[in-house]
Amino acid sequence: MPHRPENPDQDAQWRTAGDRIQNLLDASAAGGVVARERAEQLAREITDLYGAGLERMLRIAVSTHPELADAFAADDLIASLLLVHGLHPHAVERRVQDALDSVRPYLGSHGGDVALLEVDGDVVRLQFTGSCKSCPSSSVTLELAVEDAVRAAAPEISTIEVVAAEPAAPVIPVDNLLRRVRTHAWHPVPDLAGLAPGEVGGFAVGGSTVLACRVGDALFAYRDRCGSCGESLAGAALHRRMGAGGDVVLRCPRCHAHFDVVHAGACVDGNGSADAHLEPVPLLERDGVLCMALAEQETVA
């Protein structure tokens, strides 16, 4: 289980340190090529110095208390530094498997699962099962979450291949998947954590409007667009379905279509709208910070 920071503000500070360092290096280019090269050399010297010290500390600590290796690997900040310097105590296979385990509850909420088939050099092969058959965007959503988790845990992985669960074609072509994945950006959304059970709220995130709701302890997020009438879902509310075991559904305030928010936003009405669905938005806790992934561009060619 990843370590949860006691101070979320400090956690957010170090998570963005890489971006700040890169911005400073880019700014140094204003002084010319020589200034840029000196700034990069300075950054490398400092990184190598701290890396050498970290390697010695790790070797001394683990030789005395071997159990510390797992403790270091479970701390997000320490693990990220170990990855930078190639010192992570766990092999890439275990890190990939741990990454898949971390998103498995999210996959399960959308009726899907994933298995690690093999790690071959810098290539990971995965197999997806389940998913919502009536919701084609669900497959992209699930695979986006897995892609992000694997690359964060094993940055040395360059290729993620999806193997079909059956002889038929994969759930979604790999080239198409990765093209769509790389057009997404993760946005911190700590305000969503304040939603009470049964509450629905609209949020402006990354230039888009997103509808979020809480069912029990689980949070779900969707684009603010009804899959049936195409209108905004502003004012939508959660309801219990009659005669369906009390499943929770979201009702559009305009066309009154009902959508299963727990299972990828599939329409549950029996009036010919079975193919209609909401567009799920990946919502995950990344390094202790609640984030959602949105396309950097609203349209994908």
Keywords:
301 residues, alpha+beta, GMP Synthetase, Chain A, domain 3, Rieske Iron-sulfur Protein, 3 domains, 3-stranded mixed sheet, 8 helices, 13 strands, globular, 2Fe-2S, iron-sulfur, iron, 2 iron, 2 sulfur cluster binding
How large is the share of residues in beta strands?
A: 15-25%
The averaged pLDDT comes out at: 78
The number of helical runs is 8
Structural class: alpha+beta
Protein name: Rieske domain-containing protein
Family: Belongs to the NifU family.
Domain Rieske: 186-292
InterPro entries: FSCA_dom_sf, NIF_FeS_clus_asmbl_NifU_C, Rieske_2Fe-2S, Rieske_2Fe-2S_sf
Summarize the structure.
By secondary structure, this protein is α+β, with helices and mostly antiparallel strands. The protein is built from 8 helices and 13 strands.
What does this structure look like?
The protein has helices spanning 8-15, 17-28, 33-64, 68-74, 76-84, 92-109, 136-153, 174-181, and strands spanning 112-120, 123-130, 159-163, 184-188, 200-205, 208-215, 218-223, 237-240, 248-251, 258-260, 266-267, 283-286, 289-295. By secondary structure, it is of the alpha+beta class. The model is unreliable at 1-5, 167-182 and 297-301 (pLDDT under 50). The radius of gyration is 22 Å and the shape is globular. It has 3 domains: 8-84, no CATH class; 92-182, 2-Layer Sandwich (GMP Synthetase, Chain A, domain 3), CATH 3.30.300.130; 188-295, 3-layer Sandwich (Rieske Iron-sulfur Protein). The protein is 37% helix and 24% strand.
